[in-house]
Amino acid sequence: MPLSADQLRQLLTDRSDPARYRPAPQERLTTRIRRARIRRAAGASLLAVVAVAGAVSAAALVHEHAPGHAASYSGPPLPVSFTASDGASYLQIAATSMTEPARRPATIKIAAGSYPVDVMAACDTPRSVAVVEVKVNGMFASLIGCQQSPQLIGLPVRPGRQADITFSPAPVPGLRDADANWRFAAYQWKPPVTARAAPPEPRLPLSYTGYNTTTGHGKALRRLIATRSGDWPGDRTATFTLASHGRNLDISIGCAGAIAGRLQVSLQVNGTRIPGDVPCASWAPGEQPQDNGGVTGGQAGRPMTLTFRIQAPSAFTADYAKRAASWTIAIYEEEFRQ
Predict the structure, then answer these.
(1) Rounded to two decimals, what is the model's pTM?
(2) 283 and 327 assigned to the same domain
(3) What confidence tens digit (pLDDT) does each residue in 229-262 have?
(4) 166 exposed, middle or buried (CB, 10 Å; 0-12, 13-18, 19+)?
């Protein structure tokens, strides 16, 4: 039985998003995380193939098909070069394929230049619910689910380093092994000379119904009590000073733009850093806000200050500072309802 889109996102997030907000003991606060949804596939504008002005730094590359069988991928082609919606230029530096049902890994070997590396993946059987695990030099990097459109993800490949990018079939619990043929391509990208205008900021709803974290079962109404928005890279912090009513607070974070899923958000509660950042995943109008985290246990009537910092991957901060995005952080209060 095929999984729904929400079930697949939850499965992927269980594996790829281990970040947690942890307690700040001296403030006697407990913090909780409900897993963020997996970043959505890149938009159609990101996949449009256009001429790329200027060359991207060179990289030594090896195209290595999965051992033991020939590739028979028949899905959408992956572009040799393209320009993202924020003006970043992409150039393909290596590619490989993986054919099912052999279920053997495929590897791309690169010697990265001075620019960041992304990977694009496409499958030819979107209804298969196939999932691929991505590792860089043996370390887990991400999970990719078989979807209708090619997906683009960032990878932790440091400049000037050699890297083995490995793609392996990942079993879906409770389902038989899903069959799909895959095509993967590695790209180096170069930021635009000048950052373009950021897209419109996400507009989260005034209220919505979600899981009741107060009772631990059923549903509860969440009412918006505070929100902040900004444009990356100019706006990188958001501070909320709230009077606790003794109710659970839910944090929703949404971003818009080609690098939405790359930006990370950290949290301080009353000046104490909470370990574990969360991704500022893409959000589209009409979606229910994402449960990126929450705060419980605040003393009624006591003020609480939450400070969020938006940041890019540390190895390429200067490159990401030339790519525009917008963000919204919303704080919801759960209403008591059985």
Answers:
(1) 0.75
(2) yes
(3) 999 999 999 999 998 777 788 899 999 999 998 9
(4) buried
